[in-house]
Protein backbone atom coordinates (compact mmCIF):
# COMPACT_ATOMS: atom_id res chain seq x y z
CA UNK A 1 0.00 0.00 0.00
CA UNK A 2 1.49 3.35 -0.97
CA UNK A 3 1.68 6.33 1.34
CA UNK A 4 -1.06 8.03 -0.71
CA UNK A 5 -3.34 5.03 -0.13
CA UNK A 6 -2.45 5.12 3.58
CA UNK A 7 -3.38 8.80 3.70
CA UNK A 8 -6.66 8.11 1.87
CA UNK A 9 -7.51 5.25 4.23
CA UNK A 10 -6.75 7.43 7.26
CA UNK A 11 -8.92 10.31 6.01
CA UNK A 12 -11.71 7.88 5.14
CA UNK A 13 -11.62 6.26 8.58
CA UNK A 14 -11.87 9.71 10.20
CA UNK A 15 -15.12 10.25 8.30
CA UNK A 16 -16.52 6.70 8.56
CA UNK A 17 -18.70 7.21 11.70
CA UNK A 18 -20.39 10.28 10.21
CA UNK A 19 -20.85 8.58 6.84
CA UNK A 20 -22.33 5.50 8.44
CA UNK A 21 -24.69 7.73 10.44
CA UNK A 22 -25.88 9.48 7.27
CA UNK A 23 -26.34 6.17 5.46
CA UNK A 24 -28.19 4.58 8.38
CA UNK A 25 -30.56 7.52 8.69
CA UNK A 26 -31.32 7.33 4.98
CA UNK A 27 -31.60 3.56 4.64
CA UNK A 28 -32.81 2.47 8.08
CA UNK A 29 -30.58 -0.61 8.01
CA UNK A 30 -27.13 -1.01 9.53
CA UNK A 31 -26.18 -3.62 6.94
CA UNK A 32 -27.19 -1.44 4.01
CA UNK A 33 -25.45 1.53 5.64
CA UNK A 34 -22.22 -0.50 5.79
CA UNK A 35 -22.66 -1.40 2.11
CA UNK A 36 -23.14 2.26 1.17
CA UNK A 37 -20.04 3.34 3.10
CA UNK A 38 -18.03 0.53 1.51
CA UNK A 39 -19.18 1.64 -1.93
CA UNK A 40 -18.02 5.17 -1.08
CA UNK A 41 -14.57 3.77 -0.22
CA UNK A 42 -14.45 1.93 -3.55
CA UNK A 43 -15.36 5.08 -5.43
CA UNK A 44 -12.79 7.08 -3.49
CA UNK A 45 -10.04 4.55 -4.19
CA UNK A 46 -10.81 4.74 -7.93
CA UNK A 47 -10.97 8.54 -8.04
CA UNK A 48 -8.33 11.23 -8.35
CA UNK A 49 -8.19 12.10 -4.65
CA UNK A 50 -5.67 14.89 -5.22
CA UNK A 51 -8.35 16.93 -7.00
CA UNK A 52 -10.80 16.71 -4.06
CA UNK A 53 -10.88 20.05 -2.25
CA UNK A 54 -13.44 19.24 0.46
CA UNK A 55 -12.83 15.64 1.43
CA UNK A 56 -15.66 15.34 3.99
CA UNK A 57 -18.13 17.03 1.64
CA UNK A 58 -17.13 14.81 -1.26
CA UNK A 59 -17.57 11.67 0.82
CA UNK A 60 -20.94 12.84 2.16
CA UNK A 61 -22.11 13.53 -1.39
CA UNK A 62 -20.99 10.10 -2.57
CA UNK A 63 -22.67 8.30 0.34
CA UNK A 64 -25.86 10.31 -0.20
CA UNK A 65 -25.92 9.41 -3.90
CA UNK A 66 -25.23 5.74 -3.19
CA UNK A 67 -28.07 5.71 -0.64
CA UNK A 68 -30.38 7.47 -3.07
CA UNK A 69 -29.58 4.83 -5.70
CA UNK A 70 -30.22 2.06 -3.17
CA UNK A 71 -33.59 3.60 -2.22
CA UNK A 72 -34.59 3.96 -5.85
CA UNK A 73 -33.53 0.37 -6.50
CA UNK A 74 -35.73 -0.72 -3.58
CA UNK A 75 -38.70 1.05 -5.14
CA UNK A 76 -38.10 -0.34 -8.62
CA UNK A 77 -37.82 -3.90 -7.27
CA UNK A 78 -40.77 -3.28 -4.96
CA UNK A 79 -38.78 -4.25 -1.90
CA UNK A 80 -40.49 -3.74 1.40
CA UNK A 81 -38.32 -3.08 4.45
CA UNK A 82 -38.97 -5.18 7.51
CA UNK A 83 -41.76 -3.65 9.53
CA UNK A 84 -40.70 -1.73 12.57
CA UNK A 85 -42.71 -2.43 15.66
CA UNK A 86 -42.96 0.26 18.27
CA UNK A 87 -42.44 -0.54 21.93
CA UNK A 88 -45.53 -1.76 23.77
CA UNK A 89 -45.95 1.37 25.85
CA UNK A 90 -44.06 4.63 26.28
CA UNK A 91 -42.01 5.07 29.44
CA UNK A 92 -44.28 6.19 32.27
CA UNK A 93 -41.79 8.67 33.72
CA UNK A 94 -41.28 10.90 30.69
CA UNK A 95 -42.98 13.75 32.52
CA UNK A 96 -40.83 13.37 35.62
CA UNK A 97 -37.82 15.62 36.05
CA UNK A 98 -35.35 12.82 36.78
CA UNK A 99 -34.97 10.12 34.17
CA UNK A 100 -32.50 7.36 34.83
CA UNK A 101 -30.13 6.23 32.05
CA UNK A 102 -32.18 3.13 31.29
CA UNK A 103 -35.30 5.22 30.74
CA UNK A 104 -33.34 7.65 28.57
CA UNK A 105 -32.20 4.73 26.41
CA UNK A 106 -35.78 3.45 26.05
CA UNK A 107 -36.96 6.96 25.13
CA UNK A 108 -34.15 7.36 22.58
CA UNK A 109 -35.06 3.99 21.04
CA UNK A 110 -38.72 4.96 20.72
CA UNK A 111 -37.82 8.31 19.14
CA UNK A 112 -35.46 6.50 16.76
CA UNK A 113 -38.24 4.12 15.74
CA UNK A 114 -40.61 7.03 15.17
CA UNK A 115 -38.02 8.73 12.97
CA UNK A 116 -37.58 5.55 10.92
CA UNK A 117 -41.36 5.38 10.41
CA UNK A 118 -41.38 8.99 9.19
CA UNK A 119 -38.41 8.39 6.90
CA UNK A 120 -40.07 5.26 5.51
CA UNK A 121 -43.00 7.36 4.31
CA UNK A 122 -40.77 9.77 2.38
CA UNK A 123 -39.65 9.24 -1.18
CA UNK A 124 -35.93 8.79 -1.87
CA UNK A 125 -35.25 12.44 -2.74
CA UNK A 126 -37.31 13.70 0.21
CA UNK A 127 -35.48 11.34 2.55
CA UNK A 128 -32.13 12.60 1.27
CA UNK A 129 -33.18 16.21 1.79
CA UNK A 130 -34.45 15.47 5.30
CA UNK A 131 -31.29 13.65 6.39
CA UNK A 132 -28.92 16.23 4.91
CA UNK A 133 -30.93 19.07 6.47
CA UNK A 134 -30.75 17.28 9.82
CA UNK A 135 -27.02 16.64 9.38
CA UNK A 136 -26.09 20.21 8.49
CA UNK A 137 -28.71 21.96 10.61
- Unreliable stretches (pLDDT < 50, length at least 5) are 84-96
Task: Give Rg in angstroms.
Answer: 18 Å
Distance between the termini: 38 Å
Q: Tally of extended strands?
A: 0
Mean pLDDT: 77
How would you describe the shape? Answer: globular
Largest sheet, in brief, is: none
Secondary structure tally, helices: 5
Summarize the structure.
By secondary structure, the protein is mainly alpha-helical. Helices cover 72% and strands 0% of the residues.
How does this structure look, described?
This protein is mainly alpha-helical and 137 residues long. 72% of the residues lie in helices and 0% in strands. The chain is built from 5 helices and no strands. It has helices at 3-27, 30-46, 55-76, 101-121, 124-136. The N and C termini lie far apart (38 Å). Mean pLDDT is 77; it is low at 84-96.
Which tags fit this structure?
globular; mainly alpha; 137 residues
Question: Topology of this structure?
Answer:
Layout: H1 3-27, H2 30-46, H3 55-76, H4 101-121, H5 124-136
